[in-house]
Amino acid sequence: MTATAMVDVRGVHKSFGRLEVLRGVDLQAAAGSVTVVLGPSGSGKSTLLRAINHLEKLDRGTVSVDGELIGYRRSGGRLYELKEREVLRQRTRIGFVFQGFNLFPHLTVLENLTEAPVSALGRSRAEARATALDLLARVGLADKAGEYPRRLSGGQQQRVAIARALALEPKVLLFDEPTSALDPELVGEVLDVIRDLAAAGTTMIVVTHEIGFAREVADTVVFMDGGVVVEQGPPEAVLDHPQHERTRAFLSKVL
Ligand code: ADP
Ligand code: MG
């Protein structure tokens, strides 16, 4: 699988001051697969997603997406840091959906979706608009194109955020607790969108506490604790027959 991994994380270390938050993380996600990352608060899940996106500079280790190193390039066996511009270019191919939607409040839903394709990918306005309308239909919000984010429910805003990430045609979509900020009755509509993306073969890494969703949608479940991957495997293995005491202890609290 490593040869064809869409996302390949190797030996990643990251400290904040004296706190080592990632202590040698390896993670491979095959093209078209869904990886669900579980773990207690503070275990380094968000830092890992941010490291994959190179929003955090790595202390050690590498991340590549579709064979291209993010943050580094290799030359003669050595690693050199990419220039900020190059990191930004690479990052446009990685979609990121946060807990808190982060839509541009002063732009309409449609403008939220067209802004980056025009400015970062150089798409024409007409092309970006056509793609945006298709994506809004895909997340069930075709009728909201002209609305401002504040007029939408949290679930609708998160679906717009997912459509906005897709507008950049990412190679992989990263989700950091996409339903944690939602009222319980709105969680389902967002998970349904992610489920549809999985069925369409979108490569995704999803940090979530929704165990039922993990069981149903994940190809691989990764359990992190203390900045390392403690255990990973198919959902039936990790969720129903965890090998490590730390995994068992965590699952007994969230299930
Ligand atoms: P999780 O998402 O699993 O809850 P995080 O990756 O957010 O965990 O955080 C892991 C640890 O790193 C926590 O102890 C957190 O306080 C710390 N941390 C995260 N980001 C920073 C930062 N920018 N500066 C200092 N400490 C941070
Ligand atoms: Mg987090």
TrEMBL record:
Any GO molecular function: ATP binding
Record-linked Pfam families: ABC_tran
Q: Which organism is it from?
A: Kitasatospora arboriphila
PANTHER family on file:
AMINO ACID IMPORT ATP-BINDING PROTEIN (PTHR43166), L-CYSTINE IMPORT ATP-BINDING PROTEIN TCYN (PTHR43166:SF35)
Chain ranges passing through the membrane: none
Q: How does it sit in the membrane?
A: Peripheral membrane protein
Output this protein's name.
Amino acid ABC transporter ATP-binding protein
**UniProt-listed SUPFAM superfamilies:** P-loop containing nucleoside triphosphate hydrolases
Q: Where in the cell is it found?
A: Cell membrane
* Sequence ranges assigned to domain ABC transporter in this UniProt record: 7-251
Please name the InterPro entries in this protein's record.
AAA+_ATPase, ABC_ATPase_HisP-typ, ABC_transporter-like_ATP-bd, ABC_transporter-like_CS, MetN_ABC_transporter-like, P-loop_NTPase
Its organism's taxonomic lineage begins at: Bacteria, Bacillati, Actinomycetota, Actinomycetes, Kitasatosporales
Which keywords has UniProt assigned to this entry? Answer: ATP-binding, Cell membrane, Membrane, Nucleotide-binding, Transport
The answer to whether UniProt assigns keyword Nucleotide-binding to this entry is yes
